[in-house]
Design brief:
Layout (H helix, E strand, L loop, with lengths): L1 E4 L4 H11 L4 E4 L17 E4 L7 H9 L4 E4 L9 H6 L3 E3 L7 H16 L15 H6 L1
Parallel strand pairs: 1-2, 1-3, 3-4, 4-5
Length: 139
């Protein structure tokens, strides 16, 4: 899966790269996701964000227009994402519900992406607000 991770802090970079183990085509940037940086997601199927990145209706639509279909937040909180609108756009959304260390967050983030890549569900990390056959089987 082609993925970009926004708002990467120094300690997160190594953890994400190690957890990814070259499974996904992963680009890491320190920039926050905003209207000046959304173009970095062109050609990507997924984005990884932090709770510092705000995905309101306008930003979600911009991402949708350039082909992003999957969003993973590196936080347990999802209040920075308009989940209902993401569901209307048929975008998959997952969080990291229980992880606290950079290493565990990175592992769960990559796990979520890999599950989607193979047609599965993010399970207890699934925050999708759409009907999904996979969610019914695994949720």
């Amino acid at each position: 899966m082609r993925v970009i991770a926004y708002n990467i802090l120094g300690p997160e970079k190594e953890s994400l790269a190690k957890a990814n183990a070259k499974v996904h085509d992963l680009t890491l940037v320190t920039n926050e996701l905003n209207f000046s940086t959304v173009h970095y997601a062109m050609g990507k199927e997924a984005i990884i964000i932090s709770d510092r990145d705000i995905l309101d209706r306008v930003m979600l639509y911009e991402l949708f227009k350039i082909g992003v279909k999957n969003i993973v937040t590196r936080s347990a909180a999802t209040n920075h994402i308009d989940l209902d609108y993401a569901g209307e756009l048929k975008m998959h959304v997952a969080n990291v519900p229980f992880e606290t260390s950079y290493e565990d967050i990175a592992k769960r983030t990559i796990h979520n992406l890999t599950q989607w890549m193979v047609g599965g569900c993010a399970g207890d990390a699934c925050q999708c607000k759409m009907d999904c056959n996979n969610k019914m089987k695994f949720g």
